[in-house]
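Subject: Sanity check before I submit

Could someone independently write out the C-alpha cells for this chain? I want to compare against mine line by line before I put it in a report. The sequence has 316 residues.
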Amino acid sequence: MAAAFSVHQLRFVAEVAAPLRLPPHKGSSLRGGLFEALRAQFCLSPAACGSPQAAAACPVCFLLAPVQEDAPRGRDLPRPYVLRPPADPRTDYQPGERFEFRFLTFGRALGHFPYALLGVQELGRRGLGVGRAGFHLQEVWAEHPLLGRQERLYRAAEPVVAAPALPITADQVEAEVARLGATPRLLLRFHLPLRLIEAGRLVAVSNWRFRPFFQRLAERLLALSEAYAEPLPLRFDRLLQLAERVETVDNRLRWWDLFRHSSRHGRLLPMGGLVGEVVLAGELEPLLPWLVWGQFTHVGKYADHGNGWYELVPAG
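---
Independent answer below. Compare away.
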C-alpha cells in the first residue's frame, strides 16, 4: 500500500567560485543545468530516458522523465520535484558569495534525494550561468516551514549525509488550516510567475479568476499524489462549486514577461506569468487544505522550474 502524500523541502547553499551571472528568474538555468549534469554523469539509460522501462530502472530517468503506461491521467507523469530558485531580482554573484535554492520532493521520490545531491555537486563542477561559473555546494538543510524547524543534512567539510526527516504531512496541513481559521478573506501572494491557460487563452491580469487557478491546483495535487503516494481525498465537483463562488475583491497582479532557451526546440520559449497579490473572499475554509498544500507543490506551467510559487496570508 502506498504511503500517505508528503512533501520534503530541502535548501541547498552554494558558494560561488568565479563571477556568476544568472537571469532574473533563475529556475530555468538551475533546472537545465541540473538536468545536463544528471544525464551526463549518472543516467543508466540515456538513450531510453522517457520510456516506462527506463523510469522504473534508472533513478535519473525517474526524476527527469517519469513515465508510467497505466497511470490514471496519462503515461507522462508530473515530475516528482520542484526546483524553487530565489525570488529576488539579483543576477550577479562574486567569488566567495553564497546563493541558495530549494528542492521540494513529493512522496516516494524522497528516496532519490542522493541523486539530487550528486547532481548539484556535479553542476557546481560543470558551471552555471553565463560563462559556466563554478560553485561549491556547502550545505543542505531540511526545512519545515509550517513548524519553523530545520535540520542540516550535509556539510561540505563532513563525509556523512543524513536522510531528510522533516516531512510536511496531512496532519500538519490540517493544523495550519486550523491556525488560519475560518477567515473570510485570504491573500494569495505569487512570488514567481503563475502561467495558466483557460479555455485556450493565457490567463492575464484582466481575465484572472480564482476557479481556474484552483482547478489547476487540484488537478496537480491529485496527479502528484496518484503518481508518488496514496491519492489525496479531493472531492472535485464540490470543491470546484465552492471555488466558483470565491470572489477576487482586490487584484494587485502584474505580468512578468520571461523567456527561457530550449535546447530541444532551438529557440526561446515564453515562461512568463502573473506575480503580485490577490485578495479573495467567500467560503474559503473547505478549500484551505488544498491551498496550503499548493504552497509547496506550486501550480501551473513550468511549476518544476519554480513557477507558480505562492504563499497564503490571512487578510482579515
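---
OP: Matches mine. For the report I'm noting this point. The chain has two domains: 7-155, 170-314.
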